[in-house]
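Tip: read the tokens left to right.
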């Protein structure tokens, strides 16, 4: 049985949002399209997509925004253009950047820019990390929140210092905002205030929003139009974006409205985890509605525990498990979404107890 098949057999899934079947998802999309008289866009031109792009630009405080089929294409394109504007091909990247971890060297192999890895892999950047770079940087990519270290963010004061440093040194500041929606409540700031000082921002339409895929790049009107042309050059000019836009737009407002509730549930979860000292939590205090659980067992043992609990109890504890720096340890990610929000408190505790029991079996 594959991992996906095992998860689908579970009646309880802890991380993330509820996943509708394709039939249910497409039926909901069809109903929404009928209720809203949706007409297909043609190569990105049409009322639905243009209104949605404008909505996101306004929400984030930018002049314009453009849909792109993948976040991978979105970000390297934005950073390529930023480097052209600043006359330097150097882009500062955190060691846990998605570009370095998951994109198979595309920025180098496709000659977009040169990546310069700076900072500590276990904590967010500080402005001191940037000041230590003697080279002229064309751009800086800053992820908010930082997924690979449990959803950590710089403090608000540190973030403002980074923004000032980039402005004073003519460095394009780009936000990897794949989970930007998740960090607004933790910062206690409106989205335009968070984005202010970032020359461009990318947001995902499927991670926290729950769409089928796709991304949006926001920035100045001229920057966005140049990016639109580069998306075409790279094969991103699909004839109809409608399915991706509909899947996000039909639930977009509800998802954003739920983010404070996800964060409240995360605060509750941190209190519950105090009763399970064998599990270490990163970050120490929640900074978004996600967290890493560090487990006193190897990655292989963690996966074996997950699969056994799934088979015997119908509970899916987590998805991916990763090796930790300390031998014989591992960590897993919990995204606090609809599943944990709607789960009874006792069921959450039962799942944690089954996980901890597995450590000694």
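Filled-in amino acids:
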């Amino acid at each position: 049985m594959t991992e996906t098949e095992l998860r689908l057999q579970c009646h309880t899934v802890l991380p993330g949002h509820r996943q509708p079947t394709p039939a249910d998802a497409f039926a909901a999309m069809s109903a929404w399209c009928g209720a809203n008289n949706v007409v297909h866009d043609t190569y990105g031109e049409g009322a639905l997509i243009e209104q949605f792009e404008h909505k996101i630009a306004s929400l984030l405080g930018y002049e314009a925004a453009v849909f792109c089929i993948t976040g991978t294409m979105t970000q390297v394109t934005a950073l390529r253009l930023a480097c052209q504007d600043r006359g330097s091909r150097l882009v500062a990247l955190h060691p846990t950047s998605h570009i370095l971890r998951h994109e198979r060297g595309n920025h180098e192999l496709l000659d977009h820019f040169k990546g310069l890895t700076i900072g500590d892999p276990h904590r967010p950047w500080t402005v001191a990390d940037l000041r230590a770079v003697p080279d002229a940087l064309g751009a800086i990519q800053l992820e908010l929140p930082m997924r690979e270290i449990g959803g950590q963010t710089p403090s608000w004061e540190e973030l403002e210092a980074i923004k000032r440093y980039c402005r004073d040194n003519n460095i394009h500041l780009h936000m990897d905002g794949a989970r930007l929606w998740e960090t607004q409540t933790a910062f206690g700031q409106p989205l335009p205030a968070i984005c202010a000082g970032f020359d461009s921002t990318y947001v995902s339409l499927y991670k926290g929003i729950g769409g089928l895929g796709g991304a949006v790049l926001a920035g100045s009107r001229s920057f966005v139009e140049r990016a639109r042309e580069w998306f075409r050059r790279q094969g991103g000019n699909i004839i109809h974006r409608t399915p991706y836009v509909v899947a996000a737009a039909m639930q977009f407002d509800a998802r954003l409205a739920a983010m404070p509730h996800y964060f409240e549930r995360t605060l509750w979860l941190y209190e519950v985890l105090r009763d399970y000292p064998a599990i270490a939590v990163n970050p120490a205090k929640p900074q978004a509605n996600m967290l890493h659980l560090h487990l006193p067992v190897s990655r292989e043992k963690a996966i074996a525990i997950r699969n056994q609990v799934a088979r015997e109890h119908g509970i899916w504890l987590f998805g991916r498990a990763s090796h930790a720096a300390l031998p014989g340890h591992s960590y897993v990610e919990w995204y606090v979404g609809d599943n944990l929000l709607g789960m009874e408190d006792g069921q959450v505790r039962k799942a944690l107890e089954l996980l901890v029991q597995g450590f000694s079996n």
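The chain has 15 helices and 13 strands. The chain has a mean pLDDT of 96.
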